[in-house]
Amino acid sequence: MFSSNYCYFYIYLINRLTMKYISGLLVLIYGLNISAQQTHIITGYDHYFSPDTAFVNVGDTVRLVSLGYHSITEQDSIDWVNNASTDNGGFWIGLGASTFEDWFVVNQPGKYYFNCNPHAAMGMKGVLYVDSALGNEEEIHWDGFKAYLDKSNRLHLDYTNVKSVNIYSITGKIVYTKQLEFNSNSKVVELNFDKGIYLVSFLNENSVIATKKIMIK
Predict the structure, then answer these.
(1) For 70-88, what is each residue's pLDDT tens digit?
(2) pLDDT of 177-191, one tens digit each?
(3) Residue 116 sits in which domain range?
(4) Which residue in 79, 51, 20, 3 sits closest to 201, CA to CA?
(5) CA–CA separation, 200 vs 214, rounded Å?
């Protein structure tokens, strides 16, 4: 029979191995979470952002590349619509910000409006859709706008009073953009995209009026 000292030793050894296994598992999970986070680049040109609509996840980083004197300044929707040079105390990077950083981390799901504070009157603005906002049927999915694939894997777009359409990968990378005739109401797009989920945004001027999800199998 083992002495009590041997028993204590084996119990100690098992506990140590168990703790190392749990610690390793936590490190692995943490690493997976870090690797899943993305950095999204928004470039400020003369009087517009590219992209002006970004789809991001909580924990992702939004970075401003400013080709001029620009900012990404969060504001309320009413001020955004009226092209007012205001802020609501949310994120602010670039010109006029209280920080020298050119990036911020998105911490909460939702729909966020932003402008370039010094060029707000010129309509330099955009929108961030974060996590749950992507699935908010009442807010960004309208019955008057359709995006669907036919049997030949061609994308059909049905819309009214739309000036442009953007297609984003699920990570927020823009993979297709097209200016449209304002009085047109349909378009067929030949797709050469990889398999996956994409987001089709119909835009009027600088604002998103509808967003649809498509899946390429």
Answers:
(1) 999 999 888 887 889 999 9
(2) 888 877 778 888 888
(3) 39-134
(4) 51
(5) 7
